[in-house]
Amino acid sequence: MGFRRGFQAEAERIACRIREKVGLSPIDPLDLAAISTEFEIDILEMTKLPCDSSLFQSAQNGKFSAMMAHVGIRSAIVHNDTHHEHRQRSNICHELGHCFLGHEGCTLMDEDGTRSHNGAIEAEATFLGGALLLPKDAALHILKNGLNSQARSIYGISKPMLDYRIRVSGAQIIHARQLAKIARSR
After folding, report:
1. From CA 19, how far away is CA 35, in angstroms rounded?
2. Which residues contact residue 170 at a Cβ distance below 8 angstroms, ignoring those fewer than 6 apart?
3. How many angstroms separate the CA atoms of 88 and 74, rounded?
4. Helix H or strand E segment including 69
C-alpha cells in the first residue's frame, strides 16, 4: 500500500517539529516523557490499570500493543508494558502518530463483530511513529559515524525498526551517494 503523494516528507517534518517543541535535535534519542508532558498525553501501562488485564497478557492474546483513548480534552495511550522495551516505545510512537496526524478514533469492531482495521491510517501512524523514533537525520548520523551496533541502545529501538528507518528514510541511499562522491574526489 502506497502513501499519498508527499506524505513521507510531511511525516518527517512533523516528527522534527514535535522534537523541536520538546527541545530535541533530529539526532537526539526520543524522550517520550517530554512529549507526554508537552502535549498532555498520558502514557499508561496496561498492568498498572485498576482492572484485570491478564486476558491481554496471556500468550495467545499478546498481540495487544497499545491504543489511544480520548476523554474530553485529554488523551491517553494505554500500552502493553509486558512487551520488550523497544517494542513498547514503537507501540507508543505508533499511537502518537495517530494523534499527531489527527486520525479520528475508530470503532474496534464492525457490526458483524470482526475487528475494524483501516490499513492506510495504520500505515501512516506506523511511518510517523518510526520518524519520531529515528528521523532521517538520525539515520544518516548513524551511518556516517558507524554507529550501527550502538544505535539500538542509543535510540531504544529494535533491529527491524533501525533497518526499516535507515531504508525508508532514504538515509541508506544518501549515505551511499556521499561515499561515492568522496571516492570520486580522491
Report:
1. 8
2. 136
3. 21
4. strand 66-71
Specify the DSSP class assigned to residue 6. T
CB 32 within 8 A of CB 18: no
* Rounded Cα–Cα distance for residues 113 and 119 (Å): 18
Rounded Cα gap, residues 30 and 175, in angstroms: 22
Q: List all residues 6 or more positions away from 153 whose beta carbon is below 8 Å from its beta carbon.
A: none
Q: What does each C-alpha distance from 62 to 28, 45, 55, 79, 169 come to in angstroms?
A: 31, 14, 9, 11, 29
Instruction: pLDDT tens for the chain, 186 residues: list them.
Output: 689 999 999 999 999 999 999 999 999 999 999 999 999 999 999 888 888 776 666 555 567 888 888 878 888 999 998 889 999 999 999 999 999 998 876 555 556 555 566 788 999 999 999 999 999 999 999 999 999 999 999 999 999 999 999 999 999 999 999 999 999 998
- Give the Å distances, CA to CA, from 104 to 14, 17, 174: 18, 21, 35
3-state secondary structure of 79: strand
Closest by CA to 68, choosing from 34, 38, 44, is 44
pTM: 0.87
